């Protein structure tokens, strides 16, 4: 029985590094592809290798893991290298977030398609046929361009259907268009019309997370890596081992003042609730918090 050809899917990002949350979030995504139906290619836009545990998990669960160096290759050269793998689908995990290199790589498809069309037109014979169909000349290469999809990295539109064919979201990130039968307060939701690419909606949430790597308590419903290690890390950074920790692992410059004030109000309310329960000896009957909650942010440059 002849084997069914696999669908080749490529994922491209400059953030396959242990220093970026994307690698942590997606480290266990690739192993869930049906390897009988799909062949997974991962392209890391980086000038040096990263051997962090998250990157290693991605490397181990993909069929091919390729580094493309922006210091030695242009966006066009990197895209031409990707074309050699004859992908059916290329997934952009970056978009306009951070570096512009990936957007330039994805935009190269339109440039090469136009070049192929112009070359084909120039080499047609008087009867309209292509003189290079036998491939001997090589002036008109037979190029297989993949479908372009956006996912995870940038929840906005790239601004052109020539760069992305589809974007994967959910109805929360890109709400439904305003219905004249709904309240006027929802008019600001008329944003789908601004997207140039076709939209694909996940049924619940488009965002993924590698929950299996989270360290928690035995009753948290998640895989316990090592509770002793968790406690030691808490003590190392001055955190109570029993405290609930609100975290934001984004760079500080991504946090605007309005958002930060909102977080401070929420934290103040929760901490006030904690101390009030301590003072009244928890006579309210609500579950007792074992330590005051804290907010954990990264310092600049980390």
Q: Care to describe what's here?
A:
The chain is of the alpha/beta class and 302 residues long. It has six helices and nine strands. The strands form two sheets. Strands 3-2-1-4-5-6-7 form a seven-stranded parallel β-sheet, with helices on both faces. The protein has a two-stranded parallel ribbon with strand order 8-9. Residues 220-224 have low confidence and may be disordered.
List keywords for this structure.
single chain; 302 residues; alpha/beta; seven-stranded parallel β-sheet; two-stranded parallel ribbon; 15% strand; elongated
The N- to C-terminal Cα distance equals: 54 Å
Would you tell me the overall average pLDDT?
81
Topology pattern, helix = H, strand = E: EHEHEHEHEEEHEHE
Strand residue content? 5-15%
| Largest sheet data | 7 strands, parallel
Q: What general outline do the C-alpha atoms trace?
A: elongated
Which secondary-structure class do the elements indicate? alpha/beta
Which runs of at least 5 residues are low in confidence (pLDDT < 50)?
220-224
What percentage of residues falls in helices of 4 or more residues? Answer: 25-40%
Largest beta sheet: strand ordering: 3-2-1-4-5-6-7
- The radius of gyration is 25 Å
Number of helices: 6
Total strand segments:
9
């Amino acid at each position: 029985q002849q084997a069914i050809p696999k669908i080749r899917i490529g994922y491209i990002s400059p953030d396959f590094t242990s220093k970026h949350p994307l690698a942590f979030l997606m480290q266990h995504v690739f192993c869930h592809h049906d390897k009988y139906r799909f062949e997974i290619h991962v392209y890391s836009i980086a000038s040096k290798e990263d051997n962090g545990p998250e990157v290693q998990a991605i490397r181990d669960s993909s069929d091919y893991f390729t580094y493309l160096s922006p210091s030695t290759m242009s966006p066009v050269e990197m895209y031409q290298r990707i074309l050699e793998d004859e992908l059916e689908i290329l997934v952009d995990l970056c978009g306009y977030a951070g570096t512009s290199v990936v957007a330039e790589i994805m935009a190269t498809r339109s440039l090469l398609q136009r070049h192929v069309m112009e070359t084909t037109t120039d080499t047609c014979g008087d009867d309209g046929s292509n003189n290079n169909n036998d491939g001997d000349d090589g002036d008109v290469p037979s190029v297989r361009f993949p479908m372009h999809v956006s996912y995870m990295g940038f929840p906005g539109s790239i601004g052109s259907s020539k760069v992305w064919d589809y974007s994967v979201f959910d109805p929360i990130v890109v709400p439904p268009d305003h219905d004249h039968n709904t309240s006027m307060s929802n008019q600001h939701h008329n944003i789908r019309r601004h997207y140039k690419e076709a939209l694909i909606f996940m049924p619940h949430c488009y965002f993924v997370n590698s929950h299996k790597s989270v360290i928690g308590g035995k009753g948290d419903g998640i895989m316990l890596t090592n509770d002793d290690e968790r406690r030691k890390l808490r003590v190392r950074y001055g955190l109570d081992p029993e405290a609930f920790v609100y975290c934001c692992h984004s760079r500080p410059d991504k946090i605007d003042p309005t958002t930060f004030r909102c977080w401070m109000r929420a934290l103040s309310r929760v901490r006030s609730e904690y101390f009030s329960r301590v003072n009244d000896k928890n006579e309210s009957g609500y579950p007792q918090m074992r330590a005051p909650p804290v907010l954990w942010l990264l310092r600049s440059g980390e």
